[in-house]
Write a structure and sequence with these properties.
The protein is of the alpha/beta class and 268 residues long. It is built from nine helices and 13 strands. The longest helix has 16 residues, at 190-205. It starts with a strand and ends in a 6-residue tail after the last helix.
Amino acid sequence: MKQISILGCGWLGLPLAKSLLENGYSISGSTTSVEKLTVLENAGITPFLLRLSEETIEGKMESFLKNSEILIVDIPPLLRGNSLESFVGKIRNLIPYIEKSSVKMVLFVSSTSIYSEGNTTITEDTIPNPDTESGKQLLEAEQLLQSNSNFQTTVIRFGGLIGEDRHPIQFLAGKTNLENPEAPINIIHQIDCIGIIKAILQQAKNYNLKDNEIFNAVAPFHPTRKEYYTQKAIEYHLPLPHFNESKPSSGKLISSDKVEQVLGYIFS
C-alpha cells in the first residue's frame, strides 16, 4: 500500500481520493472546512484541516505529509474579482515542508489558462504567455516546483472542468452578446481528470515517467463555442445562449496528444 497526500479535497480532490482508495492507496486529505473533516473521515481518508497563506500555514502540515511519497496539489488560485491573494506565496510557503518530508513526487494541478488566446494549436512545447493574473501565478507556481531539485514535479494543465454537477451552460444559458462564437472549446470531464492522474501515478510507479513532465489535458474534440453551448442548452432544456458574431473570434485549441501517446490514456 502506498500513501498519497492530497492537498485540496474539493470538487476534484475528493472523488480522486475515493477512487485511489479503491485502488489500495492510503490517503491523507486536506480541507479548509471544519464541517468537511467528517466527510473525509467517513470516506476512509485521514483528514487534516489546513489553511495556506503567503505568510503562514495553519494546521499540521508535517503530519499531513508524513510517510507519503506522493503529494497531489489541487488548490485553486482564488484570484477572481478584487482578490489580492498571492497563490505563488502559498506555494513558496509550502515548499520547505515538502523538502523536509518523505515526498519524492509532487503532482501539481494547473490550468490551460497559462496559455494566451491566439487562434493556434497549443502543445506542451508552446511557450506559455498568460494574460490573466490567475494564469500568471499558476505558471510561476509550476516553475517554482519544477525548479526544486529535492523532489520531482509533474504538472497537469487541465482545460475547463465539467462533471455531472458542473457545466458552464448553467451560467451561459439565456445570456446575450457572448463573444468568440467560432472559438474551439477545451473542456475535460471529471472522470477523465481522475483517469489521467491515475495513469500518471501508474507510469511513475513503473518508473516510466520522465522528471518534471508537463501534460495538457482536455477532451480530444473541439466544436465551436456556439455549436457546443447551443446543443448543451437544448439537452438541459435551458434558454439558448446568443453570441455576438459581428467581431472575429479569438481562441486556442489545446492538444492532448501527449496524454494519449505517452500515458496511453483513452478518453471516456
